[in-house]
Amino acid sequence: MADHYEVLGVARDATTDEIKKAYRRLARQLHPDVNPGADASERFKSVTHAYDVLSDAKQRQQYDRGGQGGGGFDNGQFGNFGDIFETFFGGGGGGSRGPRSRRERGQDALLRVELDLDEVIFGTHRDIEVDTAVVCGTCSGTCCQPGTAPVTCDICHGTGNIQRAVRSLLGNVMTSSPCGSCRGYGTIIATPCVTCQGQGRVRARRKVPIDIPAGVDTGLRLQMPGSGEAGPAGGPNGDLYLEMKVRHHDVFSRDGDDLLCTLDIPMTTAILGTTTTVAALDGDIEVQLRPGVQSGEILTIKDRGVTKLRGNGRGDLRIGVQVLTPTKLDHKERELIEAFAARHKVPAPSLSHFQQGLFAKLRDRFLG
C-alpha cells in the first residue's frame, strides 16, 4: 500500500492545513466528474482515503506508529468498515443527502422576572434587557462580508457530499460522506464578515417588551415564541421563557386567588365595635367590626383579591382579626376592668378541645 504522505505529496510533519490544501488540489484534478479515466478514479480513491486518515488526529497518530489507519484495513483490499455500515444503515449509499443548511434555529432562553404582589393583581408591563445573540447588522445574517457571497465548493460541486466506490467483503459499494472541504454545506464562505466572523450573528443587549398577565404566581413560566436567541446564518429565533418570582410582602400573603392579612384591634374596639378604613394593595377598604368580635374571626371582602389568571373576576380579601390585650394598666384602668369583670360575672377559665384555628393559618406568610 502506498504511503499516505506520498499519495498527497506532503511531508510527514505537514500541518492539517497543508494536508487539506494538498487534498483539495488533487481532488480537483482526479474527481470522476472532471477526470473520468479508470486510473484517475483509482488515484482519487487513494487520495481520499489518505486524506481521511491524515486529517483525523487519532488515525494519523496510529498510522505514524506503523498502523494502517482507517480502522486497520487497507482501503484497496477491504475498504472502510465504517463506510460499509453507513451504506447499509442509512449513512451512505448511491444517493446524495444534499448539502447542509447553515441556517439553524437559535437556542431558547430562560429569564427570571421578579414582581411585587400588587403588580400581580392586575398584571403589568415590563421592558427587560437581555444579553443574547442577534442578527449581525453588518452582513444581515449572510455570514459574508458585504458585497460578497458564498461560492460553490469546487470539491463536491455544491452537493455537500463526496461519493466514492470502495471494495469490501460484500463487493463494490458506493459510500457518501460529508465533504471535508465545505463541511457538508456545499458552499464556502470565501470572505467571512469581519463583524461576526462568518457566524451571521453577534452578542448584544436588546430590550424585550413583555406584558405580564394578572394572576401569575411564583414558578409559572410564560413562553414568548421567537424572542430567544437568533440562529446562526440568519436562522429563526428560539423562544424566550419567563419564570415568575413574586416577592414576599410584609402585610399581605396569598392563598390561590385570595389575599390574606391580619387586622390588629384593641380590646375596647373588639367590645364596642367600629367602622375603620384600611389600606389594601389596590386602594382603601372600609371594614365594619361588629361589637364583640373575637380573635380568629375572618372578615371576607368580596372581589378584592387577585385577578384570576384563567377565568373572570377576582378572588377575595380575607382579614383575620386579632384582639390585642393591654399588658400595662395604671391603677384607675385596673379598677375599671375589675368592676367590669365583677358586673358581668366572667366565668373561670376552663379547658376545651385543642383547635387549629383559621387565624393561625393566616399568620403563615406567603413565601415567594
TrEMBL record:
GO cellular component terms given for this protein: cytoplasm
ZnF CR-type span: 123-205
Matching Pfam families: DnaJ, DnaJ_C, DnaJ_CXXCXGXG
Note describing how the cofactor binds: Binds 2 Zn(2+) ions per monomer.
Keywords: Chaperone, Cytoplasm, DNA replication, Metal-binding, Repeat, Stress response, Zinc, Zinc-finger
Primary location group: cytoplasm
UniProt GO molecular function: ATP binding; heat shock protein binding; unfolded protein binding; zinc ion binding
UniProt: Zn(2+) 2 binding residues: 153, 156, 179, 182
Localization: Cytoplasm
Function, in words: Participates actively in the response to hyperosmotic and heat shock by preventing the aggregation of stress-denatured proteins and by disaggregating proteins, also in an autonomous, DnaK-independent fashion. Unfolded proteins bind initially to DnaJ; upon interaction with the DnaJ-bound protein, DnaK hydrolyzes its bound ATP, resulting in the formation of a stable complex. GrpE releases ADP from DnaK; ATP binding to DnaK triggers the release of the substrate protein, thus completing the reaction cycle.
Protein name, UniProt field: Chaperone protein DnaJ
Species of provenance: Cryobacterium psychrotolerans
